[in-house]
Design brief:
- By secondary structure, the chain is α+β, with helices and mostly antiparallel strands.
- It has a single domain, classed as Jelly Rolls.
- Helices cover 19% and strands 30% of the residues.
- The strands form four sheets. Strands 1, 5, 6, 10, 16, 17, 18, 19 and 21 form a nine-stranded antiparallel β-sheet that branches. The chain has an eight-stranded antiparallel β-sheet with strand order 2-8-20-11-12-13-15-14.
- A hairpin with an 8-residue loop joins strand 11 and strand 12.
- Helix 1 packs antiparallel against helix 9.
- The radius of gyration is 21 Å and the shape is globular.
- It comes from Paxillus involutus ATCC 200175.
- This is Glycoside hydrolase family 16 protein.
Length: 364
């Protein structure tokens, strides 16, 4: 066993000892109350989408709560877009930021998909991109699987020698444009397969020991989540191996990440979905030109964008600390580092010493 794998096992085990207390639930009729709408064109990924204001999203029926109490966030599928124009869509960002020591869970019934469609559920620090970015859900066009990633400044890497269910990408330097990608291997993580299976849940643990992401298709959601409500604490001890494991041994989380705001957005084409060589992998037959914008964005919105929507049951955020939303300035919610009297600390110290002794003697 390598020293890195041994240390990874220690930290992952310790991280699962902790139960989390609920900070906030975004759900039902008040889902949109603590989100900001972007209100501008997509100047980040150069997509052919205009992310509208809240009033525009409401009046155009692009962001609303349906009769089942689910939040719907969608691309305009009713407008005939003329050449040179963008298609309206939505990007929303939480007003609160969640610090190291927090846990985020999103329950979805439907994920946007289709040629030109680029949805994401992700997070970023206040001085983006210098304070880190975590991509929890991200895929394009007619892909059939989700991709997870982190993006940082130079110095953070991702080792393939970690315990995770996903497959590490070819780039291990998280400061490069693609970031450190982990490809989902479990079925039904994207496209029509996701909703056909009843949707699913993602959980992200943002911890000093690392960033860990889990995905469960609806039939596999653990009881700790499926039986939870809007006031429940969260026990993650039975969640098993994460699907993406960004262990802190090769990326100091406290150095490369600060408190994160959560984002849901849908853009079109742009610097990933619209690259011709990538677009034509799954959408070569989408139109006569082989150009993402020409074949998809221009013209009628239906049926091309009929599946370009999020259906969200809830987003819940949790913390290891007892601090509430009002304890941090600038709406940053403290997840907190483990308190000094936490019994985990001496356990961690003892294990670390044991590992160093074993390593020095060539036993690891």
């Amino acid at each position: 066993m390598s020293a890195l794998l041994f240390a990874s096992a220690i930290f992952i085990f310790l991280s699962r000892v902790v139960a989390y207390d609920l900070i906030r639930e975004y759900a039902g009729s008040t889902f949109f109350d603590r989100w900001d709408f972007y209100g501008s064109w997509d100047n980040l990924s150069l997509g052919n989408a205009t992310w509208v204001t809240q009033s525009e999203a409401t009046s155009q029926n692009l962001a609303y709560v349906n009769s089942e109490g689910h939040a719907i966030i969608k691309v305009d599928n009713t407008t005939n877009v003329t050449y040179g124009e963008n298609r309206n869509s939505v990007r929303i960002t939480t007003q609160d930021a969640y610090d190291i020591g927090s846990l985020w869970i999103i329950d979805l019934n439907h994920i946007p998909f289709g040629c030109s469609v680029w949805p994401a559920f992700w997070s970023y620090g206040p001085n983006w991109p210098y304070d880190g970015e975590i991509d929890i859900i991200e895929a394009i066009n007619m892909m059939t699987y989700n991709q997870m990633a982190i993006h940082t400044t130079p110095g953070c890497t991702h080792s393939g020698n970690v315990d995770q269910l996903g497959v590490t990408g070819s780039t291990t330097d998280c400061s490069l444009v693609t970031g450190c990608v982990v490809t989902e291997t479990s079925p039904n993580s994207y496209s029509s397969n996701f909703s056909d299976a009843g949707g699913g849940v993602w959980a992200t643990q943002f911890d000093v020991s690392g960033i860990f992401i889990w995905f469960w298709s609806r039939p596999d959601v653990p009881p700790s989540i499926s039986q939870a409500n809007s006031t429940s604490s969260m026990d993650i001890s039975q969640w098993g191996t994460p699907h993406a494991n960004y262990f802190s041994a090769t990326c100091n989380i406290s150095q490369f990440f600060t408190a994160q705001k959560l984002v849901l957005d849908i853009t079109l084409c742009g610097s990933w979905a619209g690259v011709p060589s990538i677009y034509n992998l799954t959408c070569a037959d989408a139109g006569p030109t082989g150009i993402c914008y020409d074949d998809c964005v221009v013209g009628p919105g239906s049926p091309g964008f009929d599946d370009a929507y999020f259906d969200v049951s809830y987003v819940r955020t949790y913390t290891t600390a007892s601090a509430g939303p009002s304890t941090m300035p600038q709406t940053q919610l403290s997840g907190g580092i483990r308190p000094k009297n936490d019994p985990v600390i001496p356990i961690l110290a003892a294990l670390a010493v044991s590992w160093m002794v074993l390593s020095a003697n060539g036993l690891y």
